[in-house]
Design a protein that fits this description.
Keywords: Phosphoprotein. A hairpin with a 2-residue loop joins strand 4 (56-57) and strand 5 (60-61). The longest helix has 13 residues, at 14-26. The protein is an alpha/beta fold. The chain has five helices and seven strands. Helix 3 packs parallel to helix 4 (89-96). It is 39% helix and 24% strand. The chain has helices at residues 14-26, 43-46, 62-71, 89-96, 108-118, and strands at 6-10, 30-34, 50-54, 56-57, 60-61, 80-84, 100-103. The protein has one domain: Response regulator (Rossmann fold, 3-Layer(aba) Sandwich), CATH 3.40.50.2300. The strands form two sheets. A five-stranded parallel β-sheet has the order 2-1-3-6-7, with helices on both faces. The protein has a two-stranded antiparallel ribbon with strand order 4-5.
């Protein structure tokens, strides 16, 4: 059941954030957005069921933040999907411990299917 499932989307591109929010809320998810890593420091309050994390943020690398989340026993259980236009995204996702990846530009159907695998 999607209702009540919370997805944290972090991307420095406002248009991508707005698109993901629109699409995911339309599917019944509760969506929290951020344009930098600040929401990652508030996970105990936000309690997301899934994190969609852009690799390039103004305040650091999504891959680095993912590694930190996966190294912390209190957050390692959270599924993290790395989102990027990087050509080596599969390798990057594997090396940082991400649970999945989504290549930019992405197809809306791919976003739905990917999210559906985790929540």
């Amino acid at each position: 059941m999607k209702m009540g499932k919370r997805i944290l989307v972090i991307d420095d591109n406002k248009d991508i954030l707005d698109l993901m929010r629109y699409v995911l809320e339309g599917e019944g998810y509760s969506v929290i957005t951020g344009r930098d890593s600040k929401p990652l420091r508030e996970l105990h309050i936000l309690c997301p069921d899934l994190i969609l994390l852009d690799n390039r943020l103004a305040d650091g690398s999504g891959g680095h933040f993912c590694q930190q989340l996966k190294a912390d026993p209190s957050t390692r259980h959270l599924p993290v999907v790395l989102v990027s236009a990087n050509t080596d995204l599969p390798g990057m996702a594997t090396s940082c411990g991400a649970d999945g990846y989504l290549s930019k530009p992405f197809n809306i159907r791919d976003l739905w299917e990917l999210v559906g695998r985790f929540v």
